[in-house]
Amino acid sequence: MTEQRLLLIEDSALLRERLTSMLTVPGLMQVAASADTEGDAVAHINAEHFDVMIVDVELREGSGINVIRAARGLNGGRPRPLIIVLTNYSLPAVRDRCMAAGADYFLDKMAQFSELRPLIESVARKQQH
């Protein structure tokens, strides 16, 4: 299986560190870049390809929903990244906005945090077949 390149978009430095540790599996997945603002995230998306984007809704500056829209607005023949929203704002209205913007999955940080890595691994396996 090809190593998955992840873009982690999260404004909490502590959580970025925790997620990077949890999601770094040599040969399987690596956090290739991270951002804590909408502007930084969009710059990464425009500059390079990522297989998976993990996006928080509330960022230090800007919105994760705008980042999702920017990622979905790209073309140019690049493969479409898997977009997983990981947020504390798990209200149905927020979920609906994220999904309408182009998110593939929506996870609650408190209730579904441990599901993130197995989800990425499962989707990566399906894509390889």
Detail the topology: elements first, then pairings.
Blueprint: E1 4-9, H1 13-23, E2 29-35, H2 38-47, E3 52-55, H3 64-73, E4 82-87, H4 92-101, E5 105-108, H5 109-112, H6 116-128
Parallel strand pairs: 1-2, 1-3, 3-4, 4-5
Helix pairs in contact: 2-3
How would you characterize the overall build of this protein?
The protein is 45% helix and 21% strand. With 129 residues, the protein is α/β, with parallel strands linked by helices. It has one domain: Rossmann fold. Helix 2 (38-47) packs parallel to helix 3 (64-73). The termini are close together.
Oligomer state equals: single chain
Count of distinct structural domains: 1
Annotated CATH homologous superfamily: Response regulator
Percentage of residues assigned to helices: 40-55%
Q: Uncertain segments of ≥5 residues (pLDDT<50)?
A: none
CATH class equals: Alpha Beta
The largest β sheet comes out as: 5 strands, parallel
Structural class, by secondary structure, is: alpha/beta
Key phrases:
single chain; 129 residues; alpha/beta; Rossmann fold; five-stranded parallel β-sheet; 6 helices; 5 strands
